[in-house]
Design brief:
mainly alpha; 8 helices
């Protein structure tokens, strides 16, 4: 069994706090939603580099090793490593194993798996990734809409309709030109090698 590593927990929480601070600042000035902001990308790259070192030395940070909040911070760093597809996929594999052992909650795997599937232009399983639609936020395409709530329930997540209903009153600002935003997103996915 892993022993609690307080220094690592504190470091992961600081990385999470830094990530969220830059995100909030860019959201406040309106630049967060204009493509992948270079400042946010730099934070994500730096944090992914540190997580890569941690993984090489200690393996995936479990709740026993870094506490519930530290494990969630490690997941967030992995979830935000969107500019590094191979590393993000590696983290997904580690999270799948760690969550199967009960070292971290299963939703850590589920949410990173959904995000990767969306970036690969494949249907997501758990409906965690939302986008703007004609009526507000809606999930990206689903693998099986008839089973999504069953799969979410198995993870302890609320029904998808609840999440969508909660998100719709405060949607992010919609792009001036949705087609241009979609083209920009697809170009970024090709450039980053999520899709070919």
């Amino acid at each position: 069994m892993n022993q609690m590593n307080h220094a690592l927990r504190d470091e992961l929480l600081k990385l999470e706090k830094d990530d969220q601070a830059v995100r909030a600042e860019l959201a406040a000035d309106g630049s967060l939603l204009n493509g992948y902001h270079p400042r946010m990308a730099a934070v994500h790259r730096a944090h992914a580099a540190r997580l890569r070192e941690i993984l090489a030395e200690l393996g995936w940070p479990s709740e026993a090793m870094v506490g519930r909040d530290g494990a969630k911070a490690a997941w967030l760093i992995a979830q935000h490593s969107i500019g590094e597809p191979d590393f993000m996929r590696h983290c997904r594999n580690l999270l799948e194993e760690a969550s199967a052992r009960g070292d971290v909650p299963r939703w850590h795997f589920a949410l990173i798996d959904d995000r990767i599937r969306v970036y690969e232009s494949r249907p997501q399983r758990y409906g965690s990734q939302l986008r703007g639609g004609p009526d507000g936020l809606e999930p990206y395409p689903l693998e099986d809409p008839t089973k999504v709530d069953q799969w979410r329930q198995e993870l302890g997540l609320p029904p998808l309709a609840e999440i969508v209903a909660r998100s719709r009153p405060n949607p992010p600002p919609s792009p001036q030109d949705p087609a241009a935003k979609e083209a920009q997103e697809q170009a970024w996915r090709r450039e980053t090698a999520w899709i070919t």
